[in-house]
Design a protein that fits this description.
The structure holds two protein chains of two kinds. Chain A is an alpha+beta fold. Chain A has five helices and four strands; from the N terminus they run αβαβαββαα. In chain B, helix 1 crosses helix 2. The chains are: A alpha+beta, B alpha+beta.
């Protein structure tokens, strides 16, 4: 992966406390898994930023190498990979995700 | 691209020899499966690390030969 791609990815990950690499946008998700994570974040009323990996093939492939995680979506909380759709769904259903957002002061209610 | 349920089972079983593996075909197109995997290898690992073991078994196939795999990892009961 080119250095410039790595830097761009790192900038996006740290651009906000909660950042989602997804296919499409929160308003127009292009994949069921990405849409599921957007719905969970919206339901929890967590502010987040996102990157549409479909807009840049280098980022789409680079993020997989960067995190050593082969699929999209990828959710980052304070710069750390929290998981893909399965893990985020599991953590949401167990209440663990809300707990983490509360502990990190990223959720109001 | 796609793979059969048996191929997926073989790949996962070779990567996690002790594992109990259940595979569900989600779409019948050879591209969307759900796998529930119980293995001692997961003990002491967090979810990300557990899923990474499964992805390691799949190697380059994940996201290319196989489009979507829903993963559920569990520790052995005993």
């Amino acid at each position: 992966m080119e250095e410039i791609t790595k830097e761009k990815i790192s900038e996006e990950i740290t651009s906000s406390n909660v950042h989602l690499f997804m296919k499409g946008t929160p308003l127009f998700p292009q994949c069921g898994f990405s849409s599921t994570v957007v719905q969970i974040l919206t339901y929890l009323e967590v502010a987040f930023t996102s990157t549409n990996v479909l807009e840049d093939e280098k980022i789409r492939e680079g993020i997989k190498e960067y995190s050593n995680w082969p699929t999209i979506p990828q959710l980052y909380i304070k710069g750390e990979l929290m998981g893909g759709c399965d893990i985020i769904k599991e953590m949401f259903e167990s209440g663990e995700l809300k707990k983490i957002f509360k502990e990190e002061d990223l959720i109001s209610n | 691209m796609s793979m059969t349920k048996d191929e997926l089972f073989e790949i996962l079983a070779s990567g996690l020899p002790d594992a109990d593996i259940k595979i569900e075909d989600l779409a019948g197109d050879g591209d969307h499966y759900a796998a529930t995997i119980i293995s001692k290898e997961f003990i002491g690992l967090n979810r990300i690390q557990q899923h990474k073991l499964v992805y390691d078994a799949l190697g380059e196939k994940m996201g290319y030969t196989l489009h979507a795999l829903s993963i559920k990892t569990e520790l052995p009961k005993d």
